What does this fold into?
Amino acid sequence: MRAPWRCDVDDAELRPRGAVVRMAPYSPPTGGRAGKLRLDFNENTVGCSPAVVNALVQAITRERLTIYPEYEATRAALAQFFGLPQTQFLLTNGTDEAIQVLVNTFVDDDQEVIILTPSYAMYRFYSDVAGAKVRTLPYRAGTLEFPLEELLAAITPQTRAILISNPNNPTGAAIELPAIEQILQRAPHAAVLLDEAYYEFCGVTALPLIGRYQNLFVGRTFSKAYGLAGLRIGCLFSQAENVKFLHKAQSPYSVNILAAIAARAGIGDQSYVQQFVQQANAARDLLYAGFEQRGIRYYPSRGNFVLFYMGSACIAVRDGLRDRGVLVRDRSYEIEGCVRVTAGTPEQVQRFFAALDEVRR
It folds into this structure.
């Protein structure tokens, strides 16, 4: 008689889920970036507000770090800042967790998720992990404009989620509120995420629509304009009933206490954030001008970055700039011949073009 704890040989091997086996790994080039001009990840390139650092220094004690996070003060401050009740948002470990929680809450195995390409890799990543059936829709060839009509035609009763970056990374394309409403009306049965990671540089937000559309979800992050990418904190907004379900699918302590304190201090120094945004938008205009002077094709952007065309030289340009202490992001693996550069400050744009001119000689 076989022992009850034993299993057949065919069942003895530990195997991952099929959805994970089929996934392509995602490994962003994050090593060795310190001390270089970081124009590769669309981060804040000058640093967070001094008020954030002061708040963290005052808050960190040996005892404080032994206690599980408490979010009451941060949630109250964010509710006042965004003009929405605490019941209509949850704190998340960056936008990544917001995407993960949304997919885990509303999408079952083999259910349909629509994502646009190229876009933020985590939309596909978390959809694949969940075992969803992913349908991809390309940005328009040549112009990389948002494919509104194509998306509306692609939505079916089987669509369970639509994940949209607005403005989109890496193309820079954005859509206005009337287009967003068309999507929401076309897919009342689907969770529609508007990821507004670059809102501060664009100014278009779907937050005013929260009360009108039960299927709307809006993501915000403190990683970009606020300069808190290293602390990982964001918010996911929706109607209160949806947020109740999102909370059920989220770990109770996924946001650490330092991130919560930093976000609260960051929103309290809007003059600093606005000053950085003005610099970044001015730098974006200088990038346009510099590319035009050099005869380099680029795509107009609503974010703090610009996608430009280097053709077959894109890898050599990326590596040559890195050798000169300037980091940019190669995107030729999904947009042929293209490289993305972050718009930091006007002075940083000058350094970028000085290095680029050396590389192109």
About this structure: The chain has a mean pLDDT of 95. The chain has two domains: 32-46+271-360, 50-268. Residues 270-293 form the longest helix (24 residues).
